[in-house]
Amino acid sequence: DLTTIVYQQSDNIATVVLNRPDKLNAFSETMHKEFYQVLNHIVNDDSIRCVLLTGAGRGFCAGQDLGERKGAEKMDLGEKLENGYNKNLRLLKSIQAPIVCAVNGVAAGAGANIALNCDVVVARKSAKFIQAFSSIGLIPDCNGTWILPKLIGLARAKAIAMLGTPVSADQAVEWGMIYQAIDDSDFDQQVDELTHTLANRPTRALSFIKNIFDESYSNMYGEHLDRERDVQRVCGLSHDFSEGVAAFNEKRPPKFKGH
Ligand code: T3D
């Protein structure tokens, strides 16, 4: 019964496709609700070992549906953010499986920053990232002001946020904003390989990796060494560590279970 998102699950991979191609997959009120519904399902399904987020048609996501903001001068956007994007991003962040964002086309406004909140971001060479917010009198949201300076440095982050300059996929890779730019013709196949590879890796260790990198921004040096020690202790007790070591010594590929 989803109308703005296509959701499917196979090979332990959950695929979420933003599906309003006529509007470059801009977020409508309905899409916010359906995105939440789908993320909530993913959070509660332990069998999922990789999540793929992408868009239908020629765009990834053009951010907020501005058709729904016509004549909205007195609208409380803080409330809109809290009950829309922020609610969804908090849920997205709580997903333990690795999240791949396959940016299949233009990613603008909230669309760009939702992509950057994912763990492994790849883009078609023809895709562009646009911090479109200031062009309509807003600031970057969806934690863009948190993540952009960390990824590309303050100088570039401020400039693209103030100018709304489109950043090509190649430029985004060069700046460290995303992981890879892929030729359009190879995109679907490489994304498929990437998600299958991740879904067969030690899922729990990957979830620790997600979290501990984020923690590094607020931990002090010694405190962080303590965290690595504690987390590594847990990893060392896992099936996947025993299997990884056994496979190495037996010169065979490992068969990870994800725990
Ligand atoms: O309000 C809140 O809740 C606060 C939170 C805000 C978060 C935000 O995301 S603010 C930023 C919102 N997004 C934008 O400002 C981007 C607007 N879109 C564009 O600048 C351009 O469409 C693009 C640069 C993304 C792509 O340009 P182009 O030339 O490739 O495509 P186009 O022709 O502009 O768009 C194609 C269609 O999609 C078109 O519809 P039409 O004329 O064929 O019927 C266009 O109106 C529609 N579309 C694109 N973006 C949006 C949209 N419709 C509604 N909302 C959009 N954001």
TrEMBL record:
It comes from the Bacteria. InterPro entries: ClpP/crotonase-like_dom_sf, Enoyl-CoA_hydra/iso, Enoyl-CoA_hydra_C. Pfam families: ECH_1 (PF00378). Belongs to the enoyl-CoA hydratase/isomerase family. This is Enoyl-CoA hydratase-related protein. It comes from Marinicella sediminis. The lineage of its organism: Bacteria, Pseudomonadati, Pseudomonadota, Gammaproteobacteria, Lysobacterales.
